[in-house]
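Async update (no meeting this week)

Hi team, since we skipped the sync, here's where things stand on the single-chain job. The sequence we agreed to prioritize is pasted below, unchanged from the tracker. I ran it this morning and attached the output directly underneath so nobody has to dig for it. Comments welcome in thread, and please keep replies under the output.
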Amino acid sequence: MNERLETLKKARDRMIEDRDPHAKVLAAPLDREKAERARNKFVELQTLIDALDRAISAEKPASA
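Output:
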């Protein structure tokens, strides 16, 4: 596995770890202010994770 692909995978794993606490806030009893902040951060991180997934796919060699 090349270094770039490994770096992208590590970044993706890190963003998933960062996203988890925001999901827990969203799953907890409603505190509107906290939920709004958590929702915004969750969407931001998920967008980044999706972008990393696309970058990882682009780095993988095409199967023959």
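Quick observations from my side:
Residues 3-59 form one domain.
The radius of gyration is 15 Å.
Reply here if anything looks off.
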